[in-house]
Write the structure tokens for this entry.
Amino acid sequence: MSSNKEDHVWPGMADRVDVIREEKSDLGSEIKSKLAELFKSFPNVHAAYLVQLRYNQREMSVACALDMQGGETTKELREAISSVFRKTNHRTGEVLDILAIKGEMLASAKSKAHAFYTKDN
């Protein structure tokens, strides 16, 4: 089943995804310091993203840290976003923006992740 695959791809994912709820859509220094904490906690982090999501007319920012060695792929980014929705018990949402904090393969991942959440699930 696909849940086995997800566990294999994302061991300990709950520790690597940090959900930060916000009433406003602006990205403040609190979120940036939260990301810095993520880097301290995981010295092998390869890339991190700040994903802005919207569901039920509320906005949420998610700090996503990836420590995969081969570089971040669209599939991995997708899984990270999916796990956030599973964690918060929301199955659908709109991806507002994805900001690369560290790592460079972002342009195609950004559009594909957006398409993924606007279309299927």
Summary: Helices lie at 2-9, 13-16, 29-41, 74-87, 107-118. The mean pLDDT is 50. Residues 74-87 form the longest helix (14 residues). The two ends are 18 Å apart (CA to CA).
